Amino acid sequence: MTSNNHEGEEVTMNDYTISEQGVKPFEQYIFKGWVTPFPLPCGSKFPPRTGFTGDIETVSEEVTREAWDREMGDFNLGLRMDITGDYDVISLDVDEYRDKKGMQNLVELMDELGELPLKAIPRSTRRGVDSPAAQYFFLVPRGLKWASKVCADVEVIQKNHRYSAVWPSEVEGEMYRWYIGDEEIEIPNVKDLPVLPQAWINYLQRGNLIKRHAPSEYFGNTEADEWLSKVAPGWADAPSAGFLTGLEPKLEAMVGNAHDTLNDSLWWAVRYAVLDGQPGLKAAIEALKAKFFAEAERDYKETAETEYARNYLGAVNKTRGDIEHKKATPFLVKYSPALLTGFTLLTGAQKAAKAHEDLTEKINRSMRMPAPLAVPRLIALLCPELVTVRNSGSEDSILNMAVGETLQYGDLREILEKTVMPEIHRYRIQFEDDSDEDKAGKAVLSKALALCEANRPVALFENTANAVRDMGRKFTASKIDANPYLLGVGDEVLDLQAVIDNPDGGLESWLRPREYEDAVTKSLTLDIRAGLKSLEYREQSPIAKETHTERLLKVIQPDEDTRQFLQKALGYSMFGKNKAHKFFVWFGPGGSGKGSIVDSVMSVLGEDVYASQITPEQFKKGSASKPDPEYTKSLTTRMTFVNETDEGTKIDASAIKRATESRSGRALHSNNVVKQDGNTITFMTNRVFSFEHDSGVERRLAVIPFTQAKKAVKEAQPHINSEWREHEEEKVWFLNWLLEGFALSMSEGLEQEDYPPLVAQATARFIAEADPSMVFFQMLERTGDPDDYVRTEDMARSYRDVTGDLTIAEKALSMKINRWFRDQGHADDKDRVNDKRVYRGWTLNEE
């Protein structure tokens, strides 16, 4: 192995602690820009010397040299991720051995984020040149914080978290070496390390903010013990069979490697009990602790207490953090989601434990009921998301409010197999075989099994609906998802009334817990708080301040007034009522950004959740008398986009007016009619569709021009990752933008006279081209002066001249003109002068 000394001369390094020229390995690292190479015990990676790792300031070269000068004999060498220059450094630690699949997982992630040139960059490993298990080093912008994990079996080694054992260290008889591809190399100079691609930088920052959630209150040992005793079912009981099976290999893995396995083992045990409800956590923790200290006696007794406490509290507090930030669901709230509030605090844990105790008692009582009654009652108890829905003119149905779907026979079977029968088994193991309680449980289990095998368990369906209703969970069909002010977000709702009342409050102030009475079944699929944290961090970081979505909108609509009107139109369309009777048209050539914005809307509001798309044909034909499942489904969403129209498409004016009021639809093979007045239409087209003029349409129509070049729109979007819209920060930024638009639409309105210049011009041109008669009617001006008048025959002549329509019959033309005056509210201006029909108080400007 070769290296360079401080004078730049090439020297050959061997496997001993001092080279032939007397240059020690730690000095070589310092020469190459690695600031903190520190001593590790001979033959081991742990423990590091105090003062060289963790969340500390940069260690000076003087302190590093003093540490090495004090050491005698052979030592391994550790690297803290601290270097000279304008960058920081991180290492991706890939585990790919035994059951570890780090490289496989990393390659799958590359499909999303882009390739990493792993074969062309320096890596460190003791497993040989052919092993993918190694640490891969990258330069990154200074001052950023990173996730601790990239994906399963791949961790991020960084300045304040972990360190790297490197050449010439030996562990278990294997020496660490540096490689690039198939070649062994000298210690790499930090200047030669590659810069991590931006997509990966963004991802690892985002991951840091999403995955590493800290609880609002940190627990010490006493509080951690008390919290676990309340939230881990059967805390002090003997370990379950599942616990015993999982615990055995973890105890074996601690032999000779206690430090590396303790954290994962405690993390597994705490989550297995708290999240999966497995009894025996106290005994499992004690077994892990005893094994850890037995191993520590031989290797690092003096730091064992601190090390154990840190890992134990880390497992408890990280689990609490995940629960608090809704990244994990504890077992005790599985059947009572409302108990999640405050669950990570001792008071909330006590409340959840009491509720679970009460539920257990109800389950036990149900088990003693006759089996045909016990099974539906257990379903009702164990599935609080089920409600009975009273349907007009048909039988009651059971709705799963968690997913917004009506329960089918197959769903009932799945509930029996995955929820009810495991609970029956859990009940039976409390009692001795052939006891009265065991026999009752066996009878209920037998009934559940028989119902699973039934072709159409009609009686079970009816009995379950009754049991759910008896527990007070019932709605009429018209109430489900009917509140126009509410949008579901997981177990919370976005309250649009809160947006109106407090438009400057921000997303978190507009959220509140979802309540049963809200009758909300739909949900946006995004993590608002994670996205907000990521956006907050973006503001403080050296990377681009704007999201991709924000930049794209500015490119698509560079005129600020037009862009704000687009924001108001989309925000208004989120509301569950089209009170202003608006009909939006996005008009412009293909590739001008219409579809790009729709893609962002669908990503945030969800396809067929709160937004939908239909064809022009479906729009024109949709009605309750003509079944169309797609059209009917669109009526249940807040906003619907109608895709490009064909050349020469004619839209009846009445269809446009109907689209802004109440519409009905019917699905195939169904007599149920869906009636909705809260769906707002946006028509996307690159051609003007024709419709006969109607002043009612004119007042409703708002045409937003899209004129940007296709190339500019394409270049404004990221090329490295087609899934960029799915990033939480992108979705949350766009949702906030939409809600701000809603607030503006409510405070400022969307009246025609307030359209910004480009929208007003586009609307006027669109109407004129869609119906040439509009040019003629715009020549009429009401003066209100009784001496002014326009003869009907003069209007007919001018109409033919302007529109070029010479075939229209006199009567039809007269009716058209009279209808226009009537629509304008001036039918009473009709009069006669010299026995000629006129409209008094009007002039006709033919100049």
What would you note in describing this structure?
The chain has 847 residues and is α+β, with helices and mostly antiparallel strands. It folds into 5 domains: 2-195, no CATH class; 221-331, no CATH class; 368-471, no CATH class; 545-768, Rossmann fold; 772-844. Helix content is 43%, strand content 15%. The chain contains 30 helices and 33 strands. Strand 16 (397-400) and strand 17 (405-406) form a beta hairpin. The longest helix has 24 residues, at 301-324. It is flat and about 125 Å long. It starts with a strand and ends with a strand. Keywords: Hydrolase. Pfam families: Prim-Pol. Residues 29-185 form the DNA primase/polymerase bifunctional N-terminal domain. InterPro entries: DNA_primase/pol_bifunc_N, ORF904-like_C, P-loop_NTPase. GO terms for molecular function: hydrolase activity.
Q: In angstroms, what separates the terminal alpha carbons?
A: 93 Å
Determine the CATH topology of the largest domain: Rossmann fold
**Which consecutive residue ranges, at least 5 long each, have pLDDT under 50?**
1-20, 207-212
Class derived from helix and strand content: alpha+beta
Q: What would you call the quaternary organization?
A: single chain
- What is the total tally of β strands? 33
CATH domain class of the largest domain? Alpha Beta
Residues in helix, % = 40-55%
Computed CA radius of gyration, to the nearest angstrom: 35 Å
> Largest sheet, described in full?
7 strands, antiparallel
Question: What is the global morphology?
Answer: flat
Keywords: Hydrolase
Pfam families: Prim-Pol
Protein name: DNA primase/polymerase bifunctional N-terminal domain-containing protein
InterPro entries: DNA_primase/pol_bifunc_N, ORF904-like_C, P-loop_NTPase
